[in-house]
Amino acid sequence: MTLTLPPQVTPRAFARLTEINAELGDTKALRVAVDGGGCSGFQYDITLDDPADDDVILKSEGAIVVIDPVSLPFLENAVIDFTEELIGARFVIENPNATSSCGCGTSFSM
């Protein structure tokens, strides 16, 4: 089995997750998963969730990002970030494994 390098999470993404948890009054992890579907074949599913026993856990100062073992190979060397633009604010994934992606950035192909 090939060693999979986990994605990196930017300080800005961890900071926004900390803000979200403070607003909720709870501590939830940001779950980043890859599912089949979308206009390019795969799509990202980003939710707030509790960690599972088999998740890969990425932490910074109390903020937690989790990735399930099935999604991990699709996210190898990816960067999870948070961006604020005129069209809105959202978590984004820069994935070097994606050969193409849709215009909205939520689906990709490999």
TrEMBL record:
One GO molecular-function entry: 2 iron, 2 sulfur cluster binding
Which Pfam family, an example, fits this chain?
Fe-S_biosyn
Source domain of life: Bacteria
* GO annotation terms (biological process): iron-sulfur cluster assembly
Residue ranges of every copy of the Core domain listed in the record: 9-105
Identify this protein by name. Answer: Iron-sulfur cluster insertion protein ErpA
What species was this sequence derived from? Pacificibacter marinus
Q: Which gene encodes it?
A: erpA
